[in-house]
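W.,

You were right to be curious about this one. When I first looked at the sequence I had no strong expectations either way, so I just let the prediction run and decided to look at it fresh. Below is the sequence, 201 residues in total, followed by the output.
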Amino acid sequence: MSKESVTVHLVDDDASVREACRFVLEDYGYAVRCWPDGAQFLAGVDPHTLGVVILDLRMPGLYGDAVQARLEELGSTLGVIMLTAHGDVDSAVTAMKQGAVDFLQKPISGRELVVAIDAALERSRKRLAQHRLQRRLARLTQREREIAERVALGATNREIAEQLHVSVRTVEVHRANLMRKLGADSLAELIRIWQQGQAEA
């Protein structure tokens, strides 16, 4: 995936900082979108995409940590980097506990920022994969979940039919629906997807 296909969101009330960071990041090949405050960012961003947000800690209105907390509430898949000229240990610890990938103090070098962005992108990729998996699992009916659970335990269609007091044909239909909804091409993949979803639930 190219850097241009991933957006780095820069949320900072200081226009000079926004422009300086935009210049550096675009020079490294990133697509950058700037936001002057946290409220506008939250109102305008899709929180369930692949990307990174660099949040200034101290801004008028919503502080960066409040924006970060809101992103967590939304189940955001964006990787978060906190940026501040007023960094302290307590703020750093809080940011990291809330899921920030890094906590950087101004002024920072372009290389330092890029290293943090790469780490945040990796976090974003993992979160987006988890989000998409949970959305697929949420589409399953209760009966499909019961069958998926038994399939994962190694039960045959006939055994599942006996356990659920339904016909084998009914189990086959539900199992086919499971495969389609979860995008599984084989029984092994169906089991892997189901087990992964349960581990992340």
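Here's what jumped out at me. Strands lie at 7-11, 31-35, 51-56, 79-84, 102-105. And, maybe more interesting for your project: The longest helix spans residues 110-138.

Coffee later to discuss?

I.
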